[in-house]
Amino acid sequence: MLSAVWLFYRQFWFFTNAVSWGGWLMAQVPLGDDLWLLFGPLFWLKLVTFGVVWYFMYTFSRQKYLFYQNMGHSVLRLFVGAFCLDILLFFSMLAFINWLIHV
């Protein structure tokens, strides 16, 4: 399952990460205690970004889902898995950057 989610996520990871890092930069790069206040808005930004990705992929690339459906994965499961993976990677990187700055 994880390899299918990773393969699916690689199709749009650049777009979702660019939007997330852009949101973090637009918030003037908060670190430390200010970073905790930004977790909620960044989560919602990621959720909206995934909604946009779903819309465009569902509208313009429906045939790509057939590959995953033939493997036994539903579209919902792929998007939920990719969203969890995206959240995990992005917030882990933010925590790592915060740790590097404060060391």
Write a concise synopsis of the structure shown.
The chain has 103 residues and is mostly helical. Helices cover 82% and strands 0% of the residues. The chain crosses the membrane at residues 12-29, 35-57, 78-101.
Please describe what this structure looks like.
There is one protein chain. This protein has 103 residues and is an all-alpha fold. The protein has one domain. 82% of the residues lie in helices and 0% in strands. The chain has five helices and no strands. Helix 1 crosses helix 5, helix 2 runs antiparallel to helix 3 (33-60) and helix 3 runs antiparallel to helix 5. The radius of gyration is 15 Å and the shape is elongated. The termini are far apart. 12% of the residues are buried.
The major pleated sheet works out as: none
> What is the tally of beta strands?
0
- N- and C-termini, Cα separation: 37 Å
Query: Could you say how many structural domains there are in total?
Result: 1
Succession of helices and strands: HHHHH
The DSSP helix count reads: 5
What fraction of the residues are assigned to beta strands by DSSP? under 5%
Transmembrane segments: 12-29, 35-57, 78-101
Keywords: Membrane, Transmembrane, Transmembrane helix
